[in-house]
Amino acid sequence: MKRALSGLVLLVLLTGWPSGVAAQPAHTGPMPSVRFEPDARLRREAYLARRDEAVRWRAAQTPLATAGLADLAARLALRQDAAGVSTRLIEVLRAPSGDMFWMFPVTCIAYLGREQLTPEAQTALREAWRTYHPLRGDTENHWVMYYSSMLLMAQLWPGEPGERWFNGKSSAEIAHEARAWLLHWMDLTTTIGQGEYDCTHYIGEYLIPMLYLSAWAQEPEMRQRARMMMDYILADFAVDSLQGIYVGAHARSDDKSVLERWNSLSSFFAWLCFGNTAPPVGFGWGMFFALVAEHYEVPEVIHRIASDRAGPYLHRERKRTRHRWRNSDVRNAPVYKTTWVGPDYAIGSDQGGLLQPIQQHSWGLTWAAPDPRGVHNTIFANQPFYGAEELMMYFTEMPDWMPASVTFQGKPTYTSEAKLLGGSPFEQIFQQDDTVIALHRIASDAPFVQVNGFFSKDLVRTEEDPSGWIFAQGGRAYVAFRPLAPYEWVPLEGGGRRLRSPHARNGVILQPASVADFPSWEAFKVAVRALPLEVRLEPGPRVAFTTLRGRRVECAYGEVPRVDGRVVDHAAEWKLFAGPYLNAEVGSRRLELTHGRLSRVLDFNALTITDAVRP
Description:
Layout: H1 7-15, H2 19-23, H3 40-59, H4 69-77, H5 82-92, H6 100-112, H7 119-131, H8 140-156, H9 171-192, H10 203-216, H11 220-239, E1 241-242, E2 245-246, H12 265-274, H13 287-290, H14 300-307, E3 313-320, E4 334-341, E5 345-349, E6 363-367, E7 378-382, H15 388-394, H16 402-406, E8 427-432, E9 435-441, E10 451-455, E11 461-464, E12 470-474, E13 477-483, E14 488-491, E15 497-501, E16 505-514, H17 521-529, E17 533-536, E18 542-546, E19 552-556, E20 562-563, E21 566-567, H18 570-573, E22 577-578, E23 582-583, E24 590-595, E25 598-603, E26 608-613
């Protein structure tokens, strides 16, 4: 990085950080305004100020004697004590660990430190890439981090033979392999969709490598591709967000953020790029983006999509599963996503099934909260499932030890009957507008013959109605939740309740509405009770329901849904992106972003970014 941080940080270095910021960093301070700032200069200044705050906070957290990679990188970004950083880096590099999660932080340090690190530290850094053998990993985000790092490091040390690298390949061979895979991944994403799509945490593991490539890749084509992929991924997040919170269905989430929707790495990027929510405590992996964030400018059209909406909208996306190695005739099955976003709540879903291993979140409603920190502002249900069948589909290890081993790899609830995260082969979901119908026909030998529903500690009220509906309110969202089979309540540690319905033929209907749409709570309940509803559970669950928006939806497990008598053809109707803000055809390699008169076209065929203001 040729220059130091923005003028704001230079002022800080001379005069000290403003006392309010030092005492109350963004992750603990007041919630930012969600109002869109129309002045581009002020948006950019605010973006750089947030970036500077994060970097300076990180640099001040840990004494140099115990500093880790993030602490050292922050000091290099601030140009603080390069000699001391060099000495500590030599110590840290004596025991590398973390595989690709080691690679991209060290790549960052290598580039930030090109003009600062001592010759001894440079030598230690180079030697680490010969003696430490990081694993490539087995997921999409692993490979993006791995190959982005390999390309940049081979570029940093060109012309070196295989014996100078941990994998025995020359710099030229490494660069060729890395470039080929990155182009393949970009092509796959822009034709049939991302595999690890819309992840509440792993968004960072895609944006950070793309930022590094856009800033440091020598090849102009790769820099351009990386910039375009950053726009692509950030726009995909923006359209599926509510006041900075990722909403709807996710390929991967975790036990924490599936309940406390704000508490994920995606909130860091909403804070930094849009300024419309608070960042997670400590800024997380996002720190490695902040270190180089000046090399990216958030396009106005994406900023507006995230925080300047004209009203409610329906958005559809087509993604893909990760590569399937076994138990499937299709390598990348299509994923059909639907998201409805309004000012008071958002609801999104996929079609159900085993679309991703372990951490899939298939559907859920999220309501807007003035301050979402610590708030479980969501309601949803799932069919708890685990097994070697799922793991063998997506991983290549031998099956005998798979389920047990997963619980020791940061996924402690994987085999729990109380789990609220994960896909199921016994689940079928359909969403029309803001109404979701999830049906379950669970095999008798399934690990758990039940459905779990999550009812938050932060619901304003909950009432079980004699009609069979459970009425609730979260924020300014009214919710009608209809279990299709008998259930019981189980208290949850940390607050809230789990609805447990131990029946093989099962399902859930969720019908929300805005408080503003009804004169009262009672009026909402009267309206829902009056909606035509037919339910049959045998031989398989079947529902015919007329929604609050007047659409008659017919769903039967194992059959194609119908809306107003018309068969829904997912393959024909779901584009790569379709809605008022993002549009792309399957196979097109071309995404159009629009907001009002603004238009931005990312064309990966011509490698062009075209901005326009329409008449």
